[in-house]
Amino acid sequence: MIYKACLFDLDGVLVDTAIYHFQAWKNLGKKFNYELTTEQNEQLKGVSRVESLNKILDWANYSATQEEKSNWLIEKNEEYLRLISNMNRSEILPGVEEFLNQIKNQGFKIALGSASKNAEIILDKTGLMPWFDLIIDGNTVSKSKPDPEVFLKGAEGLAMKPSECIVFEDAQAGVEAAKAGNMKAIGIGDRETLYLADKVIPNFIGIKANELLLF
Ligand code: B16
Ligand code: MG
Predict the structure, then answer these.
(1) CATH number at residue 114
(2) How far is CA 162 from CA 1, 150, 159, in A?
(3) Domain match, 55 and 132 both
(4) Any catalytic annotation for residue 11?
(5) Which of 11, 65, 75, 77 is 20 to 30 A from 21, comparing alpha carbons?
(6) Tell me: the pLDDT tens digits for 32-83?
(7) Is the CB of 49 under 6 A from ligand 1?
């Protein structure tokens, strides 16, 4: 099988924005006297903004009005944007740029497949944008992972068949989305959590693309 495209999740794969999402949600939790834990934050990875708020309100057992919810989504995002305003190249996860260089040189098309509506801002701030042929993000999709929409749109936008695409994901829901879309999935993280992935690597440090992308 010849693979021609690589589709990357953003948070947890290329950069670690989870710390900023956590900080912003924790601050918001003060409004309804709720202290979000690091374990709960894990469960918010890859989950859209509105679904994240719904989960947190469930955990807090707080029944919010529509108006509260709309205001809080805006406030959380304002705080998140403030927190990421100084992001720069140093926050690209180790080995990522070297890996992107390798696959670009090997002729792979590269797309982003992220749930975040702030993906372009982050790619701009970190200098990752020039590697990407296509951005599919929270502004382009209507269904959240594990629905395969984000990756199927990526394949379609690159004019590739799903079977020609390899997805890189750190969240279980993202790996499920890739498999549901009939794509190969490479998990970034630990094997226990990402057991549905075709391969799992802890990070991109020292990874040889020609070996990893052999299936
Ligand atoms: P935003 P990914 C996801 O990014 C994050 O993991 C998740 O925690 C966040 O809620 C979601 O983006 C939406 O982000 O509020 O910026 O639209 O992992 O899909 O790249
Ligand atoms: Mg992620």
Answers:
(1) 3.40.50.1000
(2) 12, 12, 10
(3) no
(4) yes
(5) 65
(6) 999 999 999 988 988 999 999 999 999 999 999 999 999 999 999 999 999 9
(7) yes
